[in-house]
Amino acid sequence: MLTRVWRFGPCFPRLLRQTPNRCVSQSKPSGAGSAAVTETHAPAASASHGEVSPYVKNPDFHGFSSDPVVDEWNMRIGFFLGISVALVIGGTFIHYLPDHGMRQWARREAERVIQQRERDGLPLIGENYYDPSKIILPAKEQ
User: Fold this and answer.
1) What stretches pass through the bilayer (predicted)?
2) What is the torsional sign of CA 28, 31, 35, 39?
3) For the CA atoms of 52, 54, 57, 62, what is the dihedral angle to 10 degrees?
4) Cα(41)–Cα(90) distance, rounded to whole angstroms?
5) pTM of the full predicted structure?
6) Whole-number mean pLDDT of the chain?
7) pLDDT at 6
8) I need a labelling partner for 131 at 20 to 30 A (CA). Which of 11, 80, 115, 123 fits?
9) For residues 14 and 57, what is the distance between their CA atoms, to the nearest angstrom?
10) Which of 5, 49, 39, 46 has the alpha carbon at shortest distance from 19?
11) Longest Cα pair distance anywhere in the chain, in angstroms?
């Protein structure tokens, strides 16, 4: 049994569910015999025309196929491609997107201008950001 636990892993609870759950009454029997045994689950209602719900055939039905083995493999492949590959490729795509808003370029350009101004002996920011001779001011009102 331990090899089945190791080999089937998460499918092991399904192996335990193959027999219906039963409850044994703790009250005294009403007549001769042992304690009463009752089913905890009602029997599954049969569908018309002999059709059986996939959940009755396969309690671990994932919706990919009516065959339990194909259903499980399709589920595994779907989740692998849908989650693992999407996260890896999606994360790589987002990581290598170009500089949004050119923030990194603006920082490099500012550092280059600061180094050039320090090398020329100029202040980092001048007293007049714009050339005052090129600024047109409105006329004074009296």
Assistant:
1) 77-98
2) negative
3) 180
4) 45
5) 0.33
6) 76
7) 45
8) 115
9) 12
10) 39
11) 120
β pairing state of 37-39 and 22-24: antiparallel
Band the pLDDT of 26: cuts 50, 70, 90: low
Token duo for residue 64: 């990919």
Contacts of 121 (CB under 8 A, 6+ apart): none
Sign of CA dihedral 10, 13, 16, 18: negative
Residue type, 118: E
DSSP 19: S
Q: pLDDT by residue (tens digit) across 41-94?
A: 555 555 456 677 766 777 788 788 888 888 889 989 998 988 888 899 999 999
Query: Which secondary structure element, helix H or strand E, spans residue 22, and what is its range?
Result: strand 22-24
CA-wise closest residue to 60 among 48, 68, 52: 68
Among 10-14, 52-56, 77-81, 114-118, which stretch is predicted with the lowest mean pLDDT? Answer: 10-14
CA torsion sign for 101, 105, 110, 111 is positive
